[in-house]
Amino acid sequence: MGQVILQSDLASLTKAELHVHLEGTVRPSTMEEFLGRSALPVSRVYSNLAGFVEVYGSAWAMMTKPGDYARMVREYCEDAMRAGIRYAEMHITTGARPFPCLMEAVEAASKERDIVMRFIVDVPRTFPIEVGFALLEGANGVPDVVGIGLGGAERGYPPEPFTPLFDEARSRGLRSMPHAGEDAGPESIRGALDALKAERIMHGVRAVDDPQLLAELSERKIPLAVCPTSNVMLGVATSLEEHPLRELWDAGITVSVNTDDPGYFGCDLVGEYAIAGRLLNLDREGYGRLALNSVESSFAPEGLKNKMRGDIADWIRRQ
Ligand SMILES: [Zn+2]
Predict the structure, then answer these.
(1) Does pLDDT of 222 surpass 70?
(2) Domain, as residue range, for 104
(3) Is there a catalytic annotation at residue 182?
(4) How many angstroms is it from 261 CA to the middle of ligand 1?
(5) Which of these, 113, 140, 179, 277, could form a disulfide with 202 (CB 3.0-4.6 Å)?
């Protein structure tokens, strides 16, 4: 049975966040400032992934001043610390900036003492593959970049054409972590596994439509980085109660919960844990397992993983 855990207690549980976009973490007040740079009014209305990507892209286009990326990193870290996040793998969509925004983000992250951040080069799947290669090149030799992602409106943009890009990224030591199975079905997850050799899937919730795929994800221990609030906001699930988190959890898949774009969805990671707690009837040990899933799904340095495992075990024992 589920157990009542106070918000402050849940916030003190050590966690990793594995599915969050830097440009989507922007605080509402910071966003207003960025949008104020636009000569034209920017729409903030969306009801699905395609509409969201459009709104997101308009705001993204305003993040053009030196200091913007460092500020977003700092503000994310402040918010993340309050949610118990000690390690984050963060998507970043660089390029088309008059300053080296990736290096700025990496440098800002390196100054944080209590949270370790790594980055994932996020390639928009609606853009030609050449854009992806340019983004990959821009991250060449940056040790804090650990992965390559594929994001954006998924329907009509299958993963297979990005095979050469992901092959090249993997040959450079980057981990494959595409979005799949969000607004497209199991075939997109299948493509991410077979063509892109995905080691972690962002979302992947539509795997529940294919029992065989569900079993394979569980057997091969391919983690899913799920974002319940995001899924409801973008119509991937009709309500939190209808969210397939329970089916994924019961299938034995290593599921973590994450915020995706907390600046847009008004969510935080403690809230996502509370939602998972409700949907999965978690007791103290269950919350601990969910947090442990986030650590095991990550590519954090082994020493940090061990420290986090220890902190989670301590939290479970505490009452
Ligand atoms: Zn995402």
Answers:
(1) yes
(2) 7-148+225-317
(3) yes
(4) 7
(5) 179
